[in-house]
């Protein structure tokens, strides 16, 4: 998306920021938005035979990102990517996004040629929105002591054909897209950079040679095309996205489907910079975890992203662990150690 350089300053305030957001959002388009920003409500029009999928994700400074670590563009990208990944897991087509944004006043102020934090945040969010044809259709704006970004994503999926967490059956095989652990490894490296540059401008300078390593954390790619492919071909029996970590998200799938699962550590597609622990528990990879019957003939990649079989679904048995990790030392209990709030 082409960047603008219109400044937001103290004298212009909320109205000027709303005007800029509306102007920039108007450049994006989607297949189901009839009326966007400007009225009290947006108007959406899913296609005949579709049902609506809605998801919401909250991003809070100090909890989901840090102003002194994360570039504003990455914060905007990640805020939208979280919701798009949920739609991908359901096999839903993105229709529209809604953003409610709370900001400290100083983050809305541009200075000379230096763009404001919120302008750069919008750069990241709207660039990803354009990539996935997801118009920003509305939201809310308020002054806040900390940055809070609440994203609502609306998608559409053929009626009765959404991918669910509850469809896995004993005998199904377990698959993931992409590589695991890259986001956790990138976060650890970002923390090292920040600590090594205590006097540098925030966020820390990222050397060119480290940008690829940090990309899975700063700019995760939601697997929209892969989710749509799985839904259209009817091959996945259950699916969800890997936001909290493989161990925790697989436990969610097993709970919803009433099954157990076995993961083979030797089969895991671990990111080159990650450890086994990061691949199992790290979270924020936003890959798809899905099951499919043995008879399904899945390709090795979908839309350029590798698909890897990592285990199988088993019958749940009383007093037996629901998750097992196969290792060279033998089967081990796989405990959910991914992300969980209030713990």
Description:
This protein is α+β, with helices and mostly antiparallel strands. The protein folds into 2 domains: about 15-160, PurM-like, N-terminal domain (60s Ribosomal Protein L30, Chain: A, 2-Layer Sandwich), CATH 3.30.1330.10; about 165-335, Phosphoribosyl-aminoimidazole Synthetase, Chain A, domain 2, CATH 3.90.650.10. The protein has helices at about 15-25, 70-90, 115-130, 180-195, 210-220, 225-235, 245-255, 275-280; strands spanning about 35, 45, 50-60, 95-105, 135-145, 150-160, 175, 240, 260-265, 290, 300, 305-315, 325, 330-335. Strands 7, 8, 9, 10, 11, 12, 13 and 14 form an 8-stranded mixed beta sheet that branches. Strands 3-6-4-5 form a 4-stranded mixed beta sheet, with helices on one face. Strands 1-2 form a two-stranded antiparallel ribbon. β1 and β2 form a beta hairpin. It is globular. The model is unreliable at about 1-10 (pLDDT under 50).
């Amino acid at each position: 998306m082409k960047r603008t350089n219109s400044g937001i300053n103290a004298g212009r305030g909320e109205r000027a920021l709303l005007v800029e957001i509306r102007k920039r959002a108007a450049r994006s388009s989607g297949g189901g938005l009839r009326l966007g920003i400007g009225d009290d409500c947006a108007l959406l029009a899913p296609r005949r035979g579709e049902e609506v999928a809605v998801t919401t994700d909250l991003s809070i400074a100090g909890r989901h990102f840090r102003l002194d670590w994360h570039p504003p563009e990455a914060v905007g990208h990640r805020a939208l990517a979280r919701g798009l990944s949920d739609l991908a897991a359901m096999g839903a087509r993105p229709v529209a996004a809604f953003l409610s944004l709370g900001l400290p006043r100083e983050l809305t102020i541009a200075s000379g040629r230096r763009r404001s934090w919120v302008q750069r945040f919008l750069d990241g969010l709207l660039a990803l929105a354009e990539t996935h044809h997801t118009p920003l259709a509305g939201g809310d704006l308020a002054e806040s002591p900390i940055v809070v970004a609440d994203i609502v994503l609306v998608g559409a999926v053929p009626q009765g054909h959404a991918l669910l967490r509850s469809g896995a059956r004993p005998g199904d095989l377990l698959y993931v897209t992409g590589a695991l652990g890259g986001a956790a490894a990138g976060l650890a490296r970002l923390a090292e950079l920040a600590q090594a540059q205590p006097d540098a401008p925030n966020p820390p300078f990222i050397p060119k040679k480290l940008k690829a390593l940090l990309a899975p954390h700063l700019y995760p790619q939601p697997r929209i095309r892969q989710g749509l492919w799985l839904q259209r071909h009817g091959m996945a029996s259950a699916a969800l996205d890997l936001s909290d970590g493989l161990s925790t998200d697989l436990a969610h799938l097993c709970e919803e489907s009433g099954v157990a699962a076995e993961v083979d550590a030797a089969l895991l597609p671990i990111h080159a910079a990650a450890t086994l622990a990061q691949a199992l528990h790290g979270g924020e990879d936003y890959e798809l975890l899905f099951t499919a019957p043995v008879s399904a003939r899945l390709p090795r990649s979908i839309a350029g992203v590798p698909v890897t079989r990592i285990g199988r679904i088993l019958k749940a048995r009383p007093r037996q662990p629901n998750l097992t990790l196969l290792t060279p030392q033998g089967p081990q209990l796989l405990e959910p150690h991914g992300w969980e709030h209030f713990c």
